C-alpha cells in the first residue's frame, strides 16, 4: 500500500557542475539552494540586492545588474532613522545615506560581474502580488515596514511575467541556461486563496517560458513540497516555511535533476569537508585533534585530485595551521 505520490525526476539538460558558474536570485528558497551549492564548493553567487519575492523585482534587479548603473542618493528613502532602497532587502539599510550607497553599490558591482560570468541562472518566484509606490507607481521589492498608504497592492498577470522575461531571455540572460522554480513557501499574508491564485500564476508563467525558450527549464520544488511531502510535519512551526528535513529532501531531488552521477558522487565527501570546517575543537593539541587534522588534510588532497579546477587553498591552510 502506498501513502505518498512521489515525484520522480530524471537528469535534465540543465547542468550544475564544478566547472560552471551559477547565479541565483529570488525568494528565501533560493538562499537555501545557494547555501548548499556554496558549501559544496560550486562557483555561485546569489541575491546581490537581498531576497526578492516577486518576478517583477527580480527582473528589475537583473536589468540593473546588466546596466551596471550605480545607485544614487535620490533613489534612497529614509524612515525609522535608516536610509534604505525599495529595490533592496532591509539588510542593506544603514544609518547614513553614504553607508547605504556604499553597501548597495559594492554588492551591485560584484553581482553584475557574477551575472555576466554565469553559465546558468536559477530564479525562484515567490509571489505574484506586488506593491507599487503610490507616488511613483514603481514596484517595491521590499516595503520596509512603511505605512500601507504608501502603496497600491496589485497582482501580476501571466502575460506580464512572460513578456518581461521574454525580453530578458533575449537580452541579459541570452546564452545562459535558466532554471525557474516556484517557491514552496506559503505567503499566508495574501490569504490562502490569494496565495493559491498567486502560485498558479507563477506556475503558468514558468511553464510558458520553459515551453517557449530552449534554454529555460522548470524544477518542481513547489510540487515536491505540496504533492509529494504533503504533510504539515514537513513545515517549520510557522506552518509557512519548509522544515530542514523538507529542504534536505528537495535538495536531493535538485541534485538528481541538475547534476551528473560523477558530480553527485562527490557530494558526500564535500559535505564531510564542510562539516570538518565547522567542527568545534574542544581540546586543541590533543592526539585526537591531530588525527582529525590529518584525516581532514587527506580529504582535501582527495578532493583536490578529483576537482583540479576548484581552489581548496583556504581549507588546506585552515587544517595545516593546526587546531
Q: Care to describe what's here?
A:
This is GSCFA domain-containing protein. InterPro entries: GSCFA (IPR014982). It comes from Alistipes inops. The chain is of the alpha/beta class. The chain contains ten helices and ten strands. The strands form three sheets. A five-stranded parallel sheet has the order 2-1-5-9-10, with helices on both faces. Strands 7-6-8 form a three-stranded antiparallel sheet, with no helix packed on it. Strands 3-4 form a two-stranded antiparallel sheet. The longest helix has 21 residues. The radius of gyration is 21 Å and the shape is globular. The model has no long low-confidence stretch (mean pLDDT 94).
Short description:
This protein has 323 residues and is an alpha/beta fold.
Number of DSSP helices? Answer: 10
Strand order of the largest sheet: 2-1-5-9-10
Number of E strands: 10
Order of helices and strands: EHEHEEHEEEEHEHEHHHHH
The percent range for strand residues is: 5-15%
Might you state the CATH topology name of the largest domain? Rossmann fold
> What is the correct CATH architecture of the largest domain?
3-Layer(aba) Sandwich
Total of domains: 2
Give a short account of the largest sheet.
Answer: 5 strands, parallel
Ends distance? 52 Å
Mean pLDDT: 94
Low-confidence stretches: none
Pfam families: GSCFA
Protein name: GSCFA domain-containing protein
InterPro entries: GSCFA
Domain GSCFA: 23-254
SSE topology:
Elements (H helix, E strand, L loop, with lengths): L20 E6 L1 H12 L3 E4 L8 H13 L9 E3 L2 E3 L12 H21 L2 E6 L3 E5 L5 E2 L10 E5 L2 H12 L7 E6 L9 H21 L3 E3 L2 H9 L14 H15 L2 H17 L9 H20 L6 H8 L3
Parallel strand pairs: 1-2, 1-5, 5-9, 9-10
Antiparallel strand pairs: 3-4, 6-7, 6-8
Helix pairs in contact: 2-3, 2-4, 4-5, 8-9, 9-10
Amino acid at each position: 500500500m502506498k501513502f505518498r505520490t512521489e515525484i520522480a525526476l530524471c537528469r535534465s539538460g540543465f547542468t550544475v557542475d564544478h566547472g560552471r558558474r551559477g547565479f541565483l536570485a529570488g525568494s528565501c528558497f533560493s538562499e537555501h539552494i545557494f547555501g548548499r551549492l556554496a558549501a559544496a564548493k560550486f562557483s555561485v553567487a546569489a541575491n546581490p540586492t537581498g531576497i526578492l519575492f516577486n518576478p517583477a523585482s527580480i527582473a528589475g534587479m537583473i536589468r540593473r545588474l546588466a546596466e551596471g548603473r550605480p545607485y544614487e542618493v535620490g533613489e534612497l528613502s529614509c524612515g525609522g532613522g535608516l536610509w534604505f532602497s525599495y529595490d533592496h532587502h532591509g539588510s542593506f539599510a544603514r544609518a547614513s545615506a553614504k553607508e547605504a550607497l556604499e553597501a548597495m553599490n559594492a554588492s551591485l558591482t560584484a553581482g553584475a560581474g557574477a551575472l555576466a560570468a554565469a553559465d546558468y541562472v536559477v530564479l525562484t518566484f515567490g509571489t505574484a502580488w506586488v506593491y507599487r509606490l503610490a507616488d511613483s507607481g514603481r514596484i517595491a521589492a521590499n516595503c520596509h515596514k512603511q505605512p500601507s498608504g504608501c502603496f497600491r497592492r496589485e497582482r501580476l498577470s501571466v502575460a506580464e511575467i512572460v513578456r518581461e522575461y521574454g525580453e530578458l531571455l533575449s537580452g541579459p540572460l541570452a546564452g545562459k541556461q535558466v532554471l525557474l522554480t516556484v517557491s514552496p513557501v506559503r505567503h499566508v499574508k495574501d490569504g490562502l486563496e490569494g496565495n493559491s491564485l498567486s502560485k498558479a500564476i507563477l506556475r503558468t508563467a514558468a511553464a510558458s517560458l520553459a515551453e517557449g525558450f530552449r534554454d529555460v527549464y522548470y524544477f518542481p520544488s513547489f510540487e515536491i513540497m505540496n504533492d509529494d511531502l504533503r504533510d504539515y510535519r514537513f513545515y517549520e512551526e510557522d506552518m509557512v516555511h519548509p522544515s530542514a528535513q523538507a529542504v534536505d529532501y528537495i535538495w536531493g531531488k535538485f541534485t538528481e535533476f541538475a547534476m551528473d552521477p560523477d558530480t553527485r558522487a562527490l557530494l558526500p565527501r564535500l559535505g564531510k569537508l564542510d562539516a570538518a570546517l565547522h567542527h568545534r575543537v574542544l581540546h586543541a593539541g590533543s592526539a585526537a585533534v591531530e588525527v582529525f587534522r590529518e584525516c581532514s588534510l587527506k580529504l582535501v588532497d582527495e578532493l583536490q585530485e578529483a576537482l583540479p579546477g576548484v581552489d581548496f587553498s583556504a581549507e588546506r591552510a585552515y587544517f595545516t595551521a593546526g587546531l
